[in-house]
Amino acid sequence: MLKSARNKEKDPEGRMPLVEHLRELRNRLGKALLAIVIASVVGLVFYQEIINFLTRPVQEAVGCTRDFTELAKESKGACGNITMSGLMGPFTLMIKVSLTAGVVIASPVWLYQLWAFIAPGLHRHEKRYSMAFVAAGFPLFMVGAYFSYHVLPAAAEVLLDFTPENAVNLLPLDELLDLVTRMVIVFGLSFELPLVLVMLNMTGMVTGRRMLGWWRAMIMGVTVFAAFATPTVDPVSMLSLAAPIIMLYFVATGFSLLNDKRRRQREALGPADDEASELDLTPEEVGEVETVSAAKALPAQTEPERERINGYDDVT
Description:
Elements: H1 2-8, H2 18-45, H3 47-61, E1 82-83, H4 89-105, H5 107-118, H6 124-160, E2 171-172, H7 173-190, H8 193-202, H9 208-213, H10 215-229, H11 235-269, H12 288-297
Parallel strand pairs: 1-2
Helix pairs in contact: 2-4, 2-5, 3-6, 6-7, 6-8, 6-11, 8-11, 10-11
């Protein structure tokens, strides 16, 4: 009884046998997958609304004021150019959209399960940095996704202008949704760059002055990255991605410079009253001079020899 209770006690440093690690990983994955399945069912219920939301930017680009599902049975005019092909196409697309929506909706659950599995093996300062990274990373990703969603109408309008006259441009719905999804993911992940730079500066790996010295290469690199990363080839999408990333890079550089200044001021003040100063553990050679000086430092025996009684003095 006592032995089983001791086995259930958690190690304060998060150590556990390999079998326990595998069991915990299995439980965490099971909870994450269950949350994704439940969220996918919710996405299946709101499948039509999700389709309307994802196709709205392209619909706006061609002047449509009605949702795609309301125009699905119409085939005339520019608003009816979004099409589907194949007998299994609608069903496959429904499953794909539902699973994607499930992963997005259940992201707080499976991110927490991932954090709960990794956190016991981290130190206190590492946990603090990790929590700050997650807390700031999710809003930045959402800002990038929101930005890409509102850039899509302008990008679609530019691309559709290349359609030859008297030609009808048919837009397959599955390809359109893939394009929108890639745009959202690319923009969202790109907005994480300044956060990565700030975290490198907080850990002392990169200084703000060094980051500032990268500005020419960073502008060129971000521009080239935007040209290859955006699914579309129009300059509107490329500049819409490159401009905010460069701006966020300079914001991260300014924050890093301020953080370096604060760190230097803290080091100049020395340790606080409730902090122990660093010990100088540098080994030193002990020579003859030190030995002689140490011998001289010992007090001389100036008192007269004590009277011995039966072979012992009064001390012993």
